[in-house]
Amino acid sequence: MWENTAGAFAAAHAVGAEYVETDCQVTADGDVVLFHDETLSRLFGDARRVDEVRTRELATMLAPHGGLLTVGEMLEHFPDTRFNIDVKADAAAAPLGRIIAPHAHRVLLTSFSDARRRRTVDAVMDAGADIRPATSAGQAAMIRVRLLTALRVAPERLFKDLDALQIPEQYGPMRVLTPALMRAARRHDVEVHVWTVNDPHEMQRLVAAGVDGVVTDRADVAMSALF
């Protein structure tokens, strides 16, 4: 079962996962689909970009591996699940606004690009959402948080409009998850989620250290280790 597929989501739901992290790209038809990479290279050995492929063709390619879902289908088929959606393409922002607006209470939006994240949140609100979707820091915002908390400076504006910091514990030689960062996040009522953690003992260690959540490829392992 491949990542970001209907089968993978059903498996996570079956073991009791309440929160599911996913990624989205836009096809040549303008459909916002669950897919991580910009191209088909890693999964299919096909150099085409996702936005060069028709939705029907992509669905056919993914059918043996769990099945393609659009974001709209995901929200419809899993009405009790909360979703953490990483917006991978600029073209996804406007259509996501219309799709997510009725479901904003159960969606967290994130992106490596802070500008893309903000545009998507704005699109959701412009589409008539009753509540702003939760959001987590992009790469630039996360770097600022990490550097300024190391200097014991964490102004309120640094955390403006953020509900979560979603970070790796370590990035190359730099430790990202630090006591100073944790303290600053707590002061500003911002959750800390660590990715990607697949070892049950590491999950338990991080939760015991105070993180609010872990992002994992193994929902079954996480449910067994933490609940």
TrEMBL record:
Domain GP-PDE: start-end pairs: 1-226
User: Which PROSITE patterns is this protein grouped with?
Assistant: GP_PDE
Tell me the Gene Ontology biological-process terms attached to this UniProt entry.
Answer: lipid metabolic process
Any matching Pfam family: GDPD
Q: Show which residues constitute the signal peptide.
A: none
Q: What's one GO MF term for it?
A: phosphoric diester hydrolase activity
Which SUPFAM superfamilies does this chain map to?
A: PLC-like phosphodiesterases
Q: Which InterPro entries match?
A: GP_PDE_dom, PLC-like_Pdiesterase_TIM-brl
Protein name per the record: Glycerophosphoryl diester phosphodiesterase
Per the UniProt record, the source organism is Microbacterium aerolatum
